[in-house]
Amino acid sequence: MIQEIPTAGIILAAGASKRFGQPKQLLRLKGKYLLEWVLDAALNSKLNRLVLVLGDSHQKIMQALDQKLQHSKIQIAINPEFKQGQSTSIRAGLSIVKDHFAAVMFLLADQPMLNSTTINTLLESFWSADKDICVPVCKGSRKNPTLFSRHFYRQLMRVEGDHGGRQLIDANRHQVLEIEMDDPLCFFDVDTQKDLEQIKTLMLI
User: Fold this and answer.
1) Packing angle, helices 34-43 and 116-128, rounded to 10
2) How far apart (Å, rounded) are the C-alpha atoms in residues 135 and 105?
3) Domain layout of the chain by residue ranges
4) CATH architecture entry for 7-202
5) Average pLDDT of the segment spanning 46-70
6) Which residues sit opposite 49 in a β-bridge?
């Protein structure tokens, strides 16, 4: 039987989405907001707590997702420094959970085909291994979401600029558990209008 480690999910959703001319988090896909797909996957997973980090257009996003954000598992973190890069959102989310959870999973807000099964596979593999970092790998490429134990919290809090945990992963390869995943669609992220049209086709909208 797998021994569960208390793990929080931090959803990084503070970006400005300049290429879309509107908050990317609120793009509509199959009757749901883009951000809502990731939220639902995380809510239906074995993650114990969710911290949703918002920045640009946070009031509009909170208003649109008002009912969903009332869930007892969700806590909102507003990052006023989001323009200074992803590292500021990592700090905003981690500062809330670092004293209460032994591990964290960082999730991106623009991966609508990520599902709870994939999240749980990563969690259970991480909980069963003697490693402090866990990343999914698909067709030879590292993907998101990623997991870190509290061993790396202090270093994550010191990351600066528009960087996530990639530098820590590269510098600590002996501590990294790589999980091979078969389905590349699960990690498809929506960065451009072309991506949006492609994901609509894939989701048969």
Assistant:
1) 50
2) 10
3) 7-202
4) Alpha-Beta Complex (3.90)
5) 97
6) 8
